[in-house]
Specification:
CATH class of the domain at 87-163 and 203-289: Alpha Beta
Radius of gyration: 35 Å
Largest sheet: 4 strands, antiparallel
Number of helices: 12
Distance between the termini: 60 Å
Strand content: 5-15%
CATH architecture of the domain at 87-163 and 203-289: 2-Layer Sandwich
C-alpha cells in the first residue's frame, strides 16, 4: 500500500481509480517523495491503488475469449437462420420485386382504397377462371392452392373475382341509399358505405388480383370455424396470397373485416408481410421508406 498526499497547487480533477479506499472522488493524488511516514500536521492524507499493467493484461486475457465466443455464436445463429429459409426463396431476385418500371411486379403491391384510387391507365390482364374473372397471374397459383386443399380433403371454391366499375357503382349506390333511408346524413352514409362496399375507382376488385374463397359444402359460420379455413389462412402465403382485410387491421385498411377476401401479392411479398405482421397498406409504406 502506497501513501499519497494532496498537492495544494493542483486543481481538483476527476481521476479513474480502482478499489479506491478513502480518497475523495474529485481530487487528484500525487505520490509523496519523502520517505518519512509521519505526515505534517493538518494535511489531508489519501490512499489510492494504482492501475498496473499486470491488471490490464489480466482483464484483456478474460475479455478476448469472451469476445471470440460471442462472435462465433452470432455467426452460428446467422448460419442456422439461413438454412431455415426455403431454397425457393433464395432464387428470388429481391431487387426485381421492387423495380418500378416492371408492371408485372409493381402491380403486386398496388394499393387501392378510399384514399388511393386505382390508376386511370390500369388495365388488368383478365381471364375466365372457373366461375369468375381474374388477372392471368392468379390462375397458376389458384390451381396449386385449390388442388393442394383438395388433396388434403378440403373443398374450396371461388365466389368473387374481378368486378367492373359499373357493377361496383351499382352496389355502392344501393348501400348508400340504404343508409340514407335509415336517417343517416349524406357524409355519414358515404363513410359507412365506403367501409362496406368501395365506391367506383376505389375498389381492389377492379384490379383482378382480389378473390373471395369459400367452401361450397358449408355455410359462412361453419366455414370460418372449419379446418379448411384454418388451413387456408395458414398456408395462403405459400401460393402468394394474403388475407386482405383481417380483423386486427381495420384501422389501417379502412375496411370492415372480410375473412373470405384474399389478395395476390406474390410469394416473396406474402412471406415478408406475414413475417412483419403487416397488411398491404403498412407494407407498401414500409417498402417506400426503404
Amino acid at each position: 500500500m502506497k501513501k499519497f498526499i494532496l498537492k495544494k497547487n493542483l486543481l481538483p480533477i476527476r481521476i479513474k481509480r480502482f478499489e479506491d479506499i478513502s480518497a475523495e472522488p474529485l481530487f487528484a493524488c500525487q505520490k509523496r517523495k519523502s520517505k518519512i511516514f509521519s505526515l505534517p500536521e493538518k494535511r489531508n492524507e489519501f490512499v489510492c491503488r494504482k492501475w498496473s499493467r499486470k491488471n490490464f493484461i489480466k482483464i484483456l486475457l478474460i475479455a478476448l475469449p469472451l469476445t471470440s465466443i460471442l462472435i462465433l455464436t452470432g455467426g452460428l445463429c446467422a448460419s442456422v437462420k439461413e438454412k431455415l429459409v426455403p431454397d425457393s426463396h433464395k432464387d428470388i431476385n429481391i431487387k426485381k420485386c421492387f423495380l418500378k418500371d416492371e408492371e408485372y411486379n409493381k402491380n403486386y403491391l398496388l394499393v387501392v382504397n378510399s384514399k388511393t384510387p386505382i390508376p386511370k391507365n390500369y388495365k388488368p390482364n383478365l381471364i375466365h377462371y372457373m366461375q369468375i374473372e381474374c388477372d392471368v397471374v392468379l390462375s397458376e397459383n389458384l390451381d396449386k392452392l385449390l388442388n393442394e386443399a383438395k388433396a388434403l380433403g378440403y373443398e374450396l371454391s371461388l365466389s368473387k373475382g374481378y368486378v367492373p366499375e359499373n357493377v361496383i357503382n351499382e352496389n355502392y349506390n344501393k348501400k348508400l341509399n340504404k343508409f340514407l333511408n335509415e336517417g343517416f346524413t349524406i357524409v355519414r352514409a358515404e363513410a359507412y358505405a365506403e367501409r362496406l362496399v368501395s365506391s367506383p375507382g376505389k375498389s381492389e376488385y377492379q384490379t383482378g388480383l382480389l378473390v373471395d374463397i369459400y367452401s361450397p359444402n358449408k355455410n359462412e359460420i361453419e366455414f370460418l370455424s372449419s379446418a379448411a379455413y384454418k388451413w387456408l389462412v395458414n398456408n395462403c402465403v405459400n401460393y402468394g396470397f394474403i388475407q386482405r382485410y383481417p380483423s386486427d387491421k381495420v384501422d389501417k385498411t379502412g375496411k370492415d373485416c372480410n375473412p373470405y377476401c384474399f389478395r395476390f401479392v406474390g410469394k416473396y411479398h406474402a412471406y415478408k408481410m406475414r413475417t412483419l405482421s403487416m397488411c398491404l397498406e403498412e407494407y407498401s409504406d414500409y417498402i417506400k421508406s426503404k
